[in-house]
Amino acid sequence: MQLPSAESGCSPCCDRPILKLRPLLSPIQAGGLAAVFKVLANDTRLRLLHALVRADELCVTELATSVGMKTQAVSNQLQRLSDLGILAARRDGNSIHYRVVDLCVQSLLDQALCLMEEVARDSSERCCP
After folding, report:
1. Which residue has the higher pLDDT, 121 or 89?
2. Closest CA to 85 of 61, 105, 71
3. Which of 29, 67, 77, 84 stands 20 to 30 A from 45 (CA)?
């Protein structure tokens, strides 16, 4: 399956128009977007999302081990991501397995990492030796 390109006017992560072609955000839309960024603006949640993208699906215990946290703390963070519809959970006996279901999350993380690396590269080039 080929993803839509910017030339087609669609975002690469979904079939919606690219940002440049959308009408200006309404105050309600901007508030909703700010809420999404607020939930994502947490280092633990970002690490959990990255672990899930890498593994496709993990149980809470595996996630807790991967980020070095207690399972209850991880569960609390996963709940915030689930509430936004970013994650889905399935029960397997006593374990709950999570996976990323929002198609834009991986793209968003990739873009954010790219931006961070680009900023770091640019700032290191401006520094004196």
Report:
1. 89
2. 105
3. 29
